[in-house]
C-alpha cells in the first residue's frame, strides 16, 4: 500500500516512539534525576536491613544507584520476576526489608500470584517499586501497565502508592519503609518532573491533599495526572473556570474522609483523573466511596485509559489520543461544563 | 541446643511410624486427606526433624533454627504429623485437622501453624522463597540451613527452574532441596503429565550437588542428608527421593494410584492396624 507511507503535507509532524528510558517530563519542565535511587541510598544509610533486588532492570528503575552505593546489599535476580518476588519474601522472612524493582507490567501481571501468596498473604515487609506505570511507555501493551492499580488494590494487605513527581517520590521512600508490610509504588525514573515542591506539599501515607481550591470543578487525581490537573487548572483560569485539585497519592488505603469532604461540597463537578484503565482504579474507588456514603456530586466524570489494548507510538500522541494530556483534559472538562 | 540429639534413644523408624500414625488419625478426623503423600514422605520428615535439623520445639521462631519450607502445601497433613511428633504442635490439636478455627488447615499456611514457615498450596513457590531465606541467612552469617520440600509435579512450574538457576548462581550451599518423586500429580503419573527425567542430570547441569535415593529407605535418606550437609563444594544441594505412595499401609500401596487416594470410612482403622503390624520398634 504505497499510500500508507505518504504523509499529507498538512498533517502534524509524526513523532517517534521514545526510548524506554526517556523521561516523561515535558520540554522545559523542571526535573530531578533518579529521585527513587537517591532517596533509597539515603534511607539505607540509617536502615541496614534494607536490601535491593531487581529482575534485570536495575538501570531502568534507578536501583543501579543503590547498587553502586551498596554492592553487597544488592541482588540481581535475572529476568525472573516470580523468583524476584519469592526471594524478596524469603529475605523479608529473615528480617530484611527488600526494595524490589521491575516494570509495573511484570510485577502486577507476570508475578501476580507470587506477590499475592509469598508477599501479601504472608504480610512480608517487601516494598515493590515499579517503573512504567499506566501509560508511560509507547511500546504497546507489553510495557503499558494500564491495570496495575486495579490488580494491586484488589490484594489484601497491599498498600498502593501512585506518586506525582520527584519531590513526592523522595518522601514516599522513607514512608514506605516506615510502614510495616507490603507496599506497591508506581515509580517514575530518570529525569523526573518536579512540581509539588512549589505547593508546600508533604507526602503522608494514606492522606489526600488539596493542592489548590476552586469553586467549579474538583479534580481528584493521582500520579502524573495530578501534574496534569494542576496545568489544566491554570489553563482553565483563562476561561474563568475555577478548578480545585485533590491529590490522592495513596490509592489504598484510600483517604475516604478527605474525598467525601471535598466531593460533598455542593455545586462542583467531580472529575477523577488517572493514568490507568477506568476499570478498577482511582475513579471507581472514588465512585464507590461516594455512593456508599450517599454523596452525589452535581456531575461525576472519569478521565482515564479506555478498556482496550493501547496503541504503540509516541507518548504525547498517545496521551492526546486517550484523553490524558493536558490539552485533552481541558477540552473534555470544558465540554462537560 | 542441638535438637538433632533430642530423644536420641527413639529410633528414626519409630519416629516415622508415629508420623504416619498421626497422619492417618488426621485423615480419619477429616474422612479424607492427602494420606498417600503423607505416608510416602514420613521417612524423609523423620530424618529432617529427628536427625538433620536444629530447632527448639517450645520456640518455633528461634533464630538459630534450621528452616523447613513446605512448598507442596497439600502435604500439610504430613508436616503437621511431624510437627506434633516434634512437640512443636500439641498432640491434642490433631483432632482439629481441617476443621473450622483449627491451626491445622488442609493446606499449609504460615499464619496458622507454629513451625509452618511459608504458605504453600500454589505450587512452585517454595524454592524461590528458599533462595531469599538462604541469601538472608548468609547475610546474617548464620550457619543455619533452609530445607525445602517440594513435589515432582512442581517441576512443571517454570519458577522452580528460575530458583534452581539462581541458587547455583549465588552458590547457596545452605539450601537443601528435597523433591518427592512419587510419580503422581493431579492428572496422572508425573512422568506422563510432563517428562522431567533425567532429573539428576538436569539438576547437575544446573550446578547443584545432587543425590538420588529411595526415600523410604531410612539408612539411605540419613546418608543423603549427611552428605548434603557435609558436601564441600559451594553448591546448593538436592536430594531426589523416590517414594511409594501409601508406604507402610500395604492395601493403600496396592490401591490404584491417584493424586488423591480414596480411603473408605472403615479403612482408617485398618490402616492403623497395618502400620502397627509393620512397626519395627
Automatic annotation (TrEMBL), chain A:
Record-linked InterPro entries:
PDH/Transketolase, THDP-binding, Transketo_C/PFOR_II, Transketolase-like_Pyr-bd, Transketolase_C
Domain Transketolase-like pyrimidine-binding span(s) in chain numbering: 30-194
Identify the keywords attached in UniProt to this record, alphabetized: Thiamine pyrophosphate
Names of required cofactors: thiamine diphosphate
Q: Does the keyword NAD apply?
A: no
This chain's protein is named Transketolase subunit B
**SUPFAM superfamilies reported in the protein's UniProt record:** Thiamin diphosphate-binding fold (THDP-binding) (SSF52518), TK C-terminal domain-like (SSF52922)
Similarity comment text for this entry: Belongs to the transketolase family.
What transmembrane ranges does the database entry give? none
Gene3D superfamilies membership: 3.40.50.920, 3.40.50.970
TrEMBL record, chain B:
Q: Which Pfam families match?
A: Transketolase_N (PF00456)
Cofactor(s) of this protein: thiamine diphosphate
CDD domains in alphabetical order: TPP_TK
* UniProt keyword annotation of Nucleotide-binding present: no
The highest taxon in the source lineage is Bacteria
Sorted alphabetically, which InterPro entries does this protein's record hold? THDP-binding (IPR029061), Transketolase_N (IPR005474)
Keywords recorded for this protein, A-Z: Thiamine pyrophosphate
Q: Where is the Transketolase N-terminal domain?
A: 27-263
Protein family according to the UniProt entry? Belongs to the transketolase family.
**Could you tell me which PANTHER family the record lists for this protein?**
TRANSKETOLASE N-TERMINAL SECTION-RELATED
Query: What name is this protein filed under?
Result: Transketolase subunit A
- Organism equals Azospirillum brasilense
Amino acid at each position: 500500500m504505497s499510500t500508507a507511507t505518504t504523509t499529507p503535507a498538512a498533517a502534524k509532524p509524526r513523532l517517534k516512539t521514545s526510548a524506554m528510558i526517556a523521561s516523561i517530563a515535558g520540554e522545559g519542565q523542571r526535573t530531578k534525576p533518579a529521585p527513587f535511587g537517591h532517596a533509597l541510598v539515603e534511607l539505607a544509610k540509617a536502615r541496614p536491613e534494607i536490601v535491593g533486588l531487581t529482575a534485570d532492570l536495575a538501570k531502568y528503575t534507578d536501583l543501579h544507584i543503590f547498587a553502586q552505593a551498596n554492592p553487597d546489599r544488592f541482588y540481581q535476580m535475572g529476568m525472573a520476576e516470580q523468583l524476584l518476588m519469592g526471594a524478596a519474601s524469603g529475605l523479608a522472612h529473615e528480617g530484611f526489608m527488600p526494595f524490589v524493582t521491575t516494570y509495573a507490567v511484570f510485577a502486577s501481571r507476570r508475578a501476580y500470584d507470587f506477590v499475592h501468596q509469598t508477599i501479601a498473604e504472608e504480610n512480608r515487609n517487601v516494598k515493590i517499586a515499579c517503573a512504567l506505570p499506566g501509560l508511560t511507555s509507547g511500546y504497546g501493551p507489553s510495557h503499558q501497565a494500564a491495570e496495575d492499580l486495579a490488580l494491586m488494590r484488589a490484594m489484601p494487605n497491599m498498600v498502593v502508592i501512585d506518586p506525582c513527581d520527584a519531590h513526592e517520590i523522595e518522601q514516599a521512600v522513607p514512608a514506605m519503609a516506615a510502614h510495616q508490610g507490603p507496599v506497591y509504588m508506581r515509580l517514575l525514573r530518570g529525569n523526573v518532573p518536579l512540581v509539588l515542591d512549589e505547593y508546600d506539599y508533604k507526602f503522608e501515607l494514606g492522606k489526600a491533599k488539596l493542592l489548590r481550591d476552586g469553586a467549579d470543578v474538583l479534580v481528584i487525581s493521582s500520579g502524573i495526572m495530578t501534574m496534569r490537573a494542576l496545568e489544566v487548572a491554570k489553563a482553565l483560569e483563562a476561561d474563568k473556570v475555577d478548578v480545585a485539585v485533590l491529590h490522592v497519592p495513596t490509592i489504598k488505603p484510600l483517604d475516604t474522609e478527605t474525598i467525601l469532604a471535598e466531593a460533598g461540597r455542593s455545586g462542583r463537578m467531580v472529575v477523577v483523573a488517572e493514568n490507568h484503565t477506568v476499570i478498577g482504579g482511582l475513579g471507581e474507588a472514588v465512585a464507590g466511596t461516594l455512593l456508599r456514603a450517599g454523596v452525589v456530586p452535581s456531575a461525576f466524570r472519569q478521565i482515564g485509559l479506555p478498556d482496550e489494548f493501547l496503541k504503540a507510538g509516541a507518548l504525547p500522541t498517545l496521551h492526546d489520543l486517550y484523553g490524558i494530556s493536558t490539552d485533552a483534559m481541558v477540552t473534555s472538562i470544558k465540554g462537560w461544563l | 541446643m542441638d535438637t538433632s540429639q533430642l530423644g536420641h534413644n527413639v529410633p528414626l523408624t519409630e519416629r516415622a511410624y508415629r508420623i504416619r500414625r498421626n497422619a492417618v488419625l488426621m485423615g480419619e478426623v477429616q474422612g479424607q486427606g492427602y494420606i498417600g503423600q503423607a505416608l510416602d514422605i514420613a521417612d524423609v520428615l523423620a530424618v529432617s526433624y529427628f536427625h538433620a535439623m536444629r530447632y527448639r520445639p517450645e520456640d518455633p521462631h528461634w533464630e538459630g533454627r534450621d528452616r523447613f519450607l513446605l512448598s507442596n502445601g497439600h502435604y500439610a497433613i504430613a508436616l503437621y504429623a511431624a510437627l506434633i511428633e516434634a512437640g512443636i504442635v500439641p498432640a491434642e490439636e490433631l483432632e482439629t485437622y481441617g476443621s473450622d478455627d483449627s491451626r491445622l488447615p488442609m493446606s499449609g499456611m504460615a499464619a496458622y501453624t507454629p513451625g509452618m514457615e511459608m504458605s504453600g498450596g500454589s505450587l512452585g513457590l517454595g524454592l524461590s522463597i528458599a533462595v531469599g531465606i538462604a541469601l538472608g541467612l548468609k547475610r546474617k552469617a548464620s550457619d543455619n540451613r533452609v530445607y525445602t520440600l517440594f513435589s515432582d509435579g512442581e517441576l512443571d512450574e517454570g519458577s522452580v527452574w528460575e530458583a534452581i538457576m539462581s541458587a547455583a548462581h549465588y552458590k547457596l550451599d545452605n539450601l537443601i532441596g528435597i523433591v518427592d518423586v512419587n510419580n503422581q500429580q493431579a492428572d496422572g503419573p508425573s512422568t506422563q503429565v510432563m517428562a522431567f527425567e533425567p532429573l539428576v542430570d538436569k539438576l547437575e547441569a544446573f550446578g547443584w550437588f545432587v543425590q538420588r535415593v529411595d526415600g523410604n529407605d531410612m539408612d539411605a535418606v540419613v546418608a543423603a542428608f549427611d552428605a548434603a550437609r557435609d558436601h564441600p563444594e559451594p553448591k546448593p544441594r538436592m536430594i531426589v527421593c523416590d517414594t511409594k505412595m501409601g508406604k507402610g499401609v500395604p492395601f493403600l500401596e496396592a490401591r490404584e494410584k491417584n493424586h488423591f487416594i480414596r480411603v473408605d470410612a472403615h479403612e482408617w482403622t485398618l490402616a492403623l492396624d497395618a502400620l502397627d503390624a509393620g512397626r519395627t520398634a
